Amino acid sequence: MYVTMDRYENDWDVVKRGWDAQVLGEAPYKFKSALEAVKTLRAEPNANDPYLPPFVIVDDSGNAIGPVLDGDAVVTINFRADRMVMLAKALEYADFDKFDHVRVPKNRYAGMLQYDGELKLPSRYLVSPPEIERTSGEYLVKNGIRTFACSETVKFGHVTFFWNGNRSGYFDETKEEYVEIPSDSGITFNVAPKMKALEIAEKARDTILSGRPGTCQPAKW
Protein backbone atom coordinates (compact mmCIF):
# COMPACT_ATOMS: atom_id res chain seq x y z
CA MET A 1 0.00 0.00 0.00
CA TYR A 2 2.97 2.33 0.50
CA VAL A 3 5.94 0.81 -1.33
CA THR A 4 6.39 -0.53 -4.89
CA MET A 5 2.86 -1.24 -6.10
CA ASP A 6 0.05 1.21 -6.75
CA ARG A 7 -2.84 0.97 -9.23
CA TYR A 8 -4.08 2.75 -12.35
CA GLU A 9 -1.29 5.37 -12.31
CA ASN A 10 -2.83 6.89 -9.21
CA ASP A 11 0.38 7.50 -7.21
CA TRP A 12 3.79 7.04 -8.83
CA ASP A 13 5.52 8.01 -5.57
CA VAL A 14 4.60 4.55 -4.27
CA VAL A 15 6.45 2.90 -7.14
CA LYS A 16 9.42 5.25 -6.78
CA ARG A 17 9.86 4.34 -3.11
CA GLY A 18 10.09 0.70 -4.12
CA TRP A 19 12.42 1.43 -7.04
CA ASP A 20 14.80 3.38 -4.81
CA ALA A 21 14.98 0.55 -2.27
CA GLN A 22 14.94 -2.50 -4.52
CA VAL A 23 16.92 -1.25 -7.51
CA LEU A 24 19.11 1.52 -6.10
CA GLY A 25 19.52 0.07 -2.61
CA GLU A 26 18.49 3.37 -1.02
CA ALA A 27 15.89 3.75 1.73
CA PRO A 28 15.32 5.78 4.91
CA TYR A 29 15.87 2.67 7.07
CA LYS A 30 18.75 0.18 7.02
CA PHE A 31 18.91 -3.08 8.93
CA LYS A 32 21.11 -6.16 9.18
CA SER A 33 18.17 -8.55 8.72
CA ALA A 34 14.55 -8.59 7.64
CA LEU A 35 13.54 -9.83 11.09
CA GLU A 36 15.19 -6.82 12.72
CA ALA A 37 13.54 -4.52 10.20
CA VAL A 38 10.01 -5.80 10.73
CA LYS A 39 10.31 -5.93 14.54
CA THR A 40 11.69 -2.39 14.69
CA LEU A 41 9.22 -0.81 12.28
CA ARG A 42 6.23 -2.61 13.75
CA ALA A 43 7.15 -1.14 17.15
CA GLU A 44 6.60 2.40 15.84
CA PRO A 45 3.37 4.15 16.96
CA ASN A 46 0.36 3.31 14.76
CA ALA A 47 2.44 0.95 12.61
CA ASN A 48 0.73 -1.69 10.49
CA ASP A 49 2.04 -4.04 7.82
CA PRO A 50 0.58 -2.50 4.63
CA TYR A 51 2.11 0.89 5.42
CA LEU A 52 5.56 -0.02 6.69
CA PRO A 53 8.17 2.33 5.16
CA PRO A 54 10.80 1.08 2.70
CA PHE A 55 13.99 -0.41 4.11
CA VAL A 56 17.08 -2.21 2.85
CA ILE A 57 19.20 -4.98 4.32
CA VAL A 58 22.85 -3.97 4.49
CA ASP A 59 26.21 -5.61 5.10
CA ASP A 60 28.72 -4.65 7.79
CA SER A 61 29.85 -1.71 5.65
CA GLY A 62 26.34 -0.31 5.38
CA ASN A 63 25.92 -1.26 1.70
CA ALA A 64 22.66 -2.79 0.45
CA ILE A 65 23.18 -6.50 -0.15
CA GLY A 66 20.46 -7.04 -2.74
CA PRO A 67 20.01 -4.18 -5.24
CA VAL A 68 19.03 -5.08 -8.81
CA LEU A 69 22.22 -4.94 -10.90
CA ASP A 70 23.21 -5.44 -14.54
CA GLY A 71 22.87 -9.09 -15.51
CA ASP A 72 20.23 -9.92 -12.90
CA ALA A 73 17.02 -11.69 -13.77
CA VAL A 74 13.86 -10.09 -12.36
CA VAL A 75 10.53 -11.92 -11.98
CA THR A 76 7.49 -10.18 -10.50
CA ILE A 77 4.92 -12.43 -8.88
CA ASN A 78 1.54 -11.14 -7.78
CA PHE A 79 -1.99 -12.47 -8.21
CA ARG A 80 -3.34 -8.96 -8.76
CA ALA A 81 -2.50 -7.67 -12.25
CA ASP A 82 -3.57 -4.10 -11.40
CA ARG A 83 -0.89 -3.99 -8.70
CA MET A 84 1.86 -4.96 -11.14
CA VAL A 85 1.32 -2.84 -14.25
CA MET A 86 2.94 0.37 -12.98
CA LEU A 87 6.04 -1.46 -11.78
CA ALA A 88 6.20 -3.37 -15.06
CA LYS A 89 6.22 -0.07 -16.96
CA ALA A 90 9.09 1.21 -14.81
CA LEU A 91 11.09 -1.95 -15.45
CA GLU A 92 10.38 -2.32 -19.16
CA TYR A 93 9.54 0.97 -20.90
CA ALA A 94 12.59 2.61 -22.49
CA ASP A 95 10.81 6.00 -22.60
CA PHE A 96 9.54 5.82 -19.02
CA ASP A 97 9.24 9.32 -17.53
CA LYS A 98 7.04 9.09 -14.44
CA PHE A 99 10.03 9.48 -12.09
CA ASP A 100 13.80 9.59 -12.35
CA HIS A 101 15.17 6.06 -12.58
CA VAL A 102 18.66 7.33 -11.62
CA ARG A 103 19.99 3.97 -12.79
CA VAL A 104 18.38 1.44 -15.14
CA PRO A 105 19.95 -2.00 -14.74
CA LYS A 106 20.40 -4.15 -17.82
CA ASN A 107 18.46 -7.23 -16.89
CA ARG A 108 15.96 -9.74 -18.22
CA TYR A 109 12.55 -9.04 -16.74
CA ALA A 110 9.51 -11.32 -16.80
CA GLY A 111 6.16 -11.40 -15.08
CA MET A 112 4.52 -14.50 -13.73
CA LEU A 113 1.66 -13.55 -16.08
CA GLN A 114 1.19 -10.93 -18.75
CA TYR A 115 -0.54 -8.33 -16.61
CA ASP A 116 -2.04 -6.27 -19.44
CA GLY A 117 -2.88 -8.04 -22.68
CA GLU A 118 -3.63 -4.84 -24.57
CA LEU A 119 -0.36 -3.16 -23.62
CA LYS A 120 1.45 -6.51 -24.01
CA LEU A 121 3.03 -5.85 -20.63
CA PRO A 122 5.34 -7.36 -19.68
CA SER A 123 6.61 -8.65 -23.00
CA ARG A 124 8.07 -11.73 -21.27
CA TYR A 125 6.01 -13.86 -18.90
CA LEU A 126 6.12 -17.38 -17.48
CA VAL A 127 2.48 -18.45 -17.70
CA SER A 128 -0.07 -17.46 -20.35
CA PRO A 129 -2.98 -15.55 -18.78
CA PRO A 130 -6.35 -17.33 -18.77
CA GLU A 131 -8.98 -16.36 -21.30
CA ILE A 132 -12.21 -15.54 -19.50
CA GLU A 133 -15.22 -15.71 -21.77
CA ARG A 134 -18.99 -15.17 -21.42
CA THR A 135 -18.77 -12.82 -18.45
CA SER A 136 -21.91 -11.39 -16.84
CA GLY A 137 -21.27 -7.96 -18.34
CA GLU A 138 -20.93 -9.37 -21.85
CA TYR A 139 -24.03 -11.54 -21.38
CA LEU A 140 -26.18 -8.62 -20.22
CA VAL A 141 -25.10 -6.31 -23.03
CA LYS A 142 -25.57 -8.93 -25.76
CA ASN A 143 -29.08 -9.48 -24.46
CA GLY A 144 -29.89 -5.78 -24.82
CA ILE A 145 -29.61 -4.80 -21.15
CA ARG A 146 -27.94 -1.48 -20.38
CA THR A 147 -25.24 -1.55 -17.70
CA PHE A 148 -23.65 1.09 -15.50
CA ALA A 149 -20.33 0.69 -13.67
CA CYS A 150 -18.96 3.32 -11.30
CA SER A 151 -16.04 3.40 -8.89
CA GLU A 152 -13.09 5.53 -7.87
CA THR A 153 -9.70 5.34 -9.56
CA VAL A 154 -8.09 2.69 -7.34
CA LYS A 155 -11.13 0.41 -7.65
CA PHE A 156 -12.19 1.29 -11.20
CA GLY A 157 -10.64 -1.85 -12.66
CA HIS A 158 -12.80 -4.00 -10.40
CA VAL A 159 -15.99 -2.88 -12.09
CA THR A 160 -14.58 -2.66 -15.63
CA PHE A 161 -11.42 -4.65 -16.39
CA PHE A 162 -11.97 -7.54 -13.92
CA TRP A 163 -15.75 -7.55 -14.31
CA ASN A 164 -15.29 -7.99 -18.06
CA GLY A 165 -12.88 -10.91 -17.83
CA ASN A 166 -9.63 -8.92 -17.79
CA ARG A 167 -10.62 -6.79 -20.77
CA SER A 168 -10.43 -3.01 -21.02
CA GLY A 169 -13.00 -1.01 -22.97
CA TYR A 170 -16.60 -1.67 -23.84
CA PHE A 171 -18.45 -4.59 -25.37
CA ASP A 172 -21.03 -2.10 -26.72
CA GLU A 173 -20.64 1.62 -25.95
CA THR A 174 -24.31 2.24 -26.76
CA LYS A 175 -25.40 0.04 -23.85
CA GLU A 176 -22.61 0.54 -21.30
CA GLU A 177 -21.63 3.51 -19.16
CA TYR A 178 -18.42 3.60 -17.12
CA VAL A 179 -17.84 6.42 -14.63
CA GLU A 180 -14.56 6.96 -12.79
CA ILE A 181 -14.47 9.12 -9.64
CA PRO A 182 -10.88 10.36 -9.13
CA SER A 183 -9.26 8.97 -5.97
CA ASP A 184 -7.54 11.27 -3.49
CA SER A 185 -3.83 10.83 -4.14
CA GLY A 186 -1.60 10.50 -1.10
CA ILE A 187 -4.39 9.74 1.39
CA THR A 188 -4.15 6.21 2.76
CA PHE A 189 -7.24 4.09 3.18
CA ASN A 190 -6.63 3.52 6.89
CA VAL A 191 -6.91 7.31 7.35
CA ALA A 192 -9.93 7.75 5.05
CA PRO A 193 -11.64 4.32 4.90
CA LYS A 194 -14.83 5.70 3.37
CA MET A 195 -12.79 6.54 0.27
CA LYS A 196 -15.22 7.83 -2.41
CA ALA A 197 -18.24 5.81 -1.30
CA LEU A 198 -20.48 8.88 -1.00
CA GLU A 199 -19.60 10.25 -4.44
CA ILE A 200 -20.09 6.82 -6.01
CA ALA A 201 -23.46 6.42 -4.29
CA GLU A 202 -24.57 9.85 -5.48
CA LYS A 203 -23.57 9.11 -9.07
CA ALA A 204 -25.36 5.75 -8.94
CA ARG A 205 -28.46 7.45 -7.48
CA ASP A 206 -28.47 10.07 -10.21
CA THR A 207 -28.13 7.43 -12.90
CA ILE A 208 -30.98 5.35 -11.49
CA LEU A 209 -33.24 8.39 -11.13
CA SER A 210 -32.47 9.43 -14.71
CA GLY A 211 -34.70 6.60 -15.85
CA ARG A 212 -31.98 4.79 -17.79
CA PRO A 213 -32.19 1.11 -16.86
CA GLY A 214 -28.91 -0.50 -15.90
CA THR A 215 -26.86 -2.23 -13.26
CA CYS A 216 -24.51 -0.64 -10.77
CA GLN A 217 -21.28 -2.05 -9.35
CA PRO A 218 -20.02 0.32 -6.62
CA ALA A 219 -16.59 0.12 -5.00
CA LYS A 220 -15.58 -3.49 -4.35
CA TRP A 221 -14.13 -4.25 -0.93
TrEMBL record:
Provide the protein's localization. Answer: Cytoplasm
Entry EC no(s): 5.4.2.12
Residues forming the Metalloenzyme domain are: 126-211
Molecular function per GO: manganese ion binding; phosphoglycerate mutase activity
Q: Which SUPFAM superfamilies match?
A: 2,3-Bisphosphoglycerate-independent phosphoglycerate mutase, substrate-binding domain (SSF64158), Alkaline phosphatase-like (SSF53649)
Tell me which stretches of the chain form a coiled coil: none
- Please tell me one Gene Ontology term that the record gives under cellular component: cytoplasm
Please give the superkingdom of this protein's source: Eukaryota
Q: What is its main location?
A: cytoplasm
| EC class | isomerase
Choose any GO biological process term that the UniProt entry carries and state it.
Answer: stomatal movement
Q: Which reaction does it catalyse?
A: (2R)-2-phosphoglycerate = (2R)-3-phosphoglycerate
Required co-factors = Mn(2+)
Q: How the protein assembles, per its UniProt entry?
A: Monomer.
Instruction: State the family it belongs to.
Output: Belongs to the BPG-independent phosphoglycerate mutase family.
Protein name from the UniProt record: phosphoglycerate mutase (2,3-diphosphoglycerate-independent)
Q: What is the lineage of its organism?
A: Eukaryota, Viridiplantae, Streptophyta, Embryophyta, Tracheophyta
